[in-house]
Amino acid sequence: MNAVQDLSFVELILHAHFLVKLIMLLLFAISVISWTYIFRKVFAIRAARRLTEQFERSFWAGGNLHTLHQSASTQRDQSGPLARIFEAGMGEFIKGKQAARDALDVGAVLDGARRAMRAAFHRELDHLDTHLNFLASVGSVSPYIGLLGTVWGIMNAFRGLANVQQATLAVVAPGIAEALIATAIGLFAAIPAVVAYNRFTHDIDRLAIRFESFVEEFSNILQRQSR
């Protein structure tokens, strides 16, 4: 086994075993995809929070609900998740009132509006949760993928010692260093994914609480207006 005198990262990667190189390349690709999803999710959650706050200010300012509903309907894609939940509930309430013919139908109208808001609520959460499973998988699997490369590299390094009459640290160190880079890259991919997953989960849970609170409060408002 030829000892690699230059222990820089580039030289260690270039002299690594072919299988270890493939594992490093896989981990690098996973890391790039993970960071892409992280940046997208940062902007998506930030936009959802900003638009939610804007809609809450407009809603609780005491404006006309029909006017607010028309505004949310015409700008549905840019209105934010909470506005879309409101639009679903208010739209169902308006259609239900138009179809209702007596006071006995009021309960059914309110139930329909609540169901429409709950359905919209779950759609918005599902949209916000997109790619979180991938980040969780990267955080849990990447270290083991890197460890596989490390184990294989160390095995290859020790097999090479069979052709060396005298095993010294200078002979063993490069092969082990090459193998350990795979674990380092695996951790480099896993740690940001785990941190981002935990942070995004926390932020989405907080938004979900705000959405649920709005559904309950708006349901009470619709109930008072239907009397």
Please describe what this structure looks like.
- The Tol-Pal system is composed of five core proteins: the inner membrane proteins TolA, TolQ and TolR, the periplasmic protein TolB and the outer membrane protein Pal. They form a network linking the inner and outer membranes and the peptidoglycan layer.
- This is Tol-Pal system protein TolQ.
- This protein is rod-shaped.
- Helix 2 runs antiparallel to helix 6 and helix 2 (18-60) packs parallel to helix 7 (169-225).
- The longest helix is centred in the C-terminal third of the chain and has 57 residues, at 169-225.
- Residues 1-5 have low confidence and may be disordered.
- It has 227 residues and is mainly α.
- Helix content is 82%, strand content 0%.
Task: Describe the structure in brief.
The protein is mainly alpha-helical and about 230 residues long. It is built from seven helices and no strands. The chain has helices at about 10-15, 20-60, 65-75, 80-100, 105-130, 130-160, 170-225.
